[in-house]
């Protein structure tokens, strides 16, 4: 049993009304352990004022201004991705408590949180490291790389997409400076193994197991039937030159969309950081595939 008073940073979804009971369970477990608890300010205000909860916390924090031994995401997979974006540069391990729907990333149910906490305090918790990818924009009109407005890191995927009702876009693609193919499609998804079961999968991409050392390029509604997803080593550097009739396009980094102008070149590569996810010993990747995605289920009568 650890003698140190552990510090936990809590993130949540202030738009999810049904999570109150799960939050109370998590806070009760942390209180029983005498943990130091800080809560992301928007989530704290939502719980305190919106749900009228008496939140027992040692403090609140804004943005990236927190210091914790572990982070806790309370919500669904979207909440988990937003929290992961805040903690990945710090290397803080994250626990996903699922009060949403699917819960593929946020896999710990509120009733199982005590088990996860027991493992943490007993020093036997399992940490699974997940690859992160990053993108930078290089404009032909200016010298050097341009910073994107938002965070350039993605745990799931980076998607290049057409805007609204615009015609399909043209994406000239290079792998380590070697020309691969020109996609004519509604978009292109560059996915990590973590994101392979998300937008990549819905577009016909393959499932890639964690720690496999791969990324995947999957076109969105390609114009040609001869274009298929391709799996690459995650040390690969991908360069994308995008053309569009509307002269602009979208880049979505874990769902956070940003408009870019035609003529902008995107460089996508493995990031220097990883996301460490706390795993329950009772849960394994293939069992989650079967339970959450109904993998291999026979729907015939």
Automatic annotation (TrEMBL):
Keyword Transferase tagged: yes
Reaction catalysis annotation: NAD(+) + ATP = ADP + NADP(+) + H(+)
Stated name of the protein: NAD kinase
MF GO annotations: ATP binding; metal ion binding; NAD binding; NAD+ kinase activity
Active site: 77 (proton acceptor)
The EC number(s) this enzyme carries: 2.7.1.23
Cited InterPro entries: ATP-NAD_kinase_N, ATP-NAD_kinase_PpnK-typ_C, NAD/diacylglycerol_kinase_sf, NADK
GO BP field: NAD+ metabolic process; NADP+ biosynthetic process
GO cellular component: cytoplasm
First-listed, main subcellular location of the protein, grouped into a coarse class: cytoplasm
Similarity comment text for this entry: Belongs to the NAD kinase family.
Pfam families, A to Z: NAD_kinase (PF01513), NAD_kinase_C (PF20143)
UniProt entry keywords in alphabetical sequence: ATP-binding, Cytoplasm, Kinase, NAD, NADP, Nucleotide-binding, Transferase
PANTHER family: NAD KINASE (PTHR20275)
Underlying gene: nadK
Cofactor(s) the record lists: a divalent metal cation
Function: Involved in the regulation of the intracellular balance of NAD and NADP, and is a key enzyme in the biosynthesis of NADP. Catalyzes specifically the phosphorylation on 2'-hydroxyl of the adenosine moiety of NAD to yield NADP.
NCBIfam families xref list: PRK01911.1
Protein residues bound to NAD(+): 77-78, 82, 156-157, 186, 197-202, 221
Species the sequence originates in: Hallella multisaccharivorax DSM 17128
Signal peptide extent: none
Compartment(s) of residence: Cytoplasm
């Amino acid at each position: 049993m650890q003698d140190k008073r552990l510090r936990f940073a809590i993130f949540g979804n202030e738009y999810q009304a049904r999570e109150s009971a799960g939050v109370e369970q998590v806070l009760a477990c942390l209180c029983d352990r005498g943990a130091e608890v800080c809560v992301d300010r928007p989530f704290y205000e939502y719980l305190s004022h919106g749900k009228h909860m008496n939140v027992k916390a040692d403090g609140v924090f804004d943005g990236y201004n927190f210091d914790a031994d572990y982070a806790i995401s309370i919500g669904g997979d979207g909440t988990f991705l937003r929290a992961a974006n805040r903690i990945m540069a710090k290397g803080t391990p994250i626990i996903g408590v699922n009060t949403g729907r699917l819960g593929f990333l946020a896999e710990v149910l509120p009733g199982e949180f005590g088990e996860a906490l027991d493992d943490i305090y007993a020093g036997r918790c399992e940490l699974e490291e997940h690859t992160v990818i990053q993108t930078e924009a290089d404009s032909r009109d200016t010298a050097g790389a341009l910073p994107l407005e938002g965070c350039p890191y993605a745990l799931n995927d980076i998607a290049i997409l057409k805007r609204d009702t615009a015609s399909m876009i043209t994406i000239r693609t290079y792998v380590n400076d070697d020309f691969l193919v020109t996609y004519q499609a509604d978009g292109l998804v560059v996915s990590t193994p973590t994101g392979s079961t998300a937008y990549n999968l819905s577009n016909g991409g393959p499932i890639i197991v964690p720690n496999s050392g791969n990324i995947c390029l999957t076109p969105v509604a390609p114009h040609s039937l001869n274009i298929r997803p391709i799996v690459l080593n995650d040390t690969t550097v991908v360069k994308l030159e995008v053309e569009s009739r509307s002269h602009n396009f979208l880049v979505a980094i874990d769902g956070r969309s940003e408009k870019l102008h035609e003529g902008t070149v995107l460089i996508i590569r493995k990031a220097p950081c990883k996301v460490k996810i706390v795993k329950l010993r009772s849960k394994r990747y293939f069992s989650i595939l079967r339970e959450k995605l109904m993998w291999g289920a026979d729907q015939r009568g």
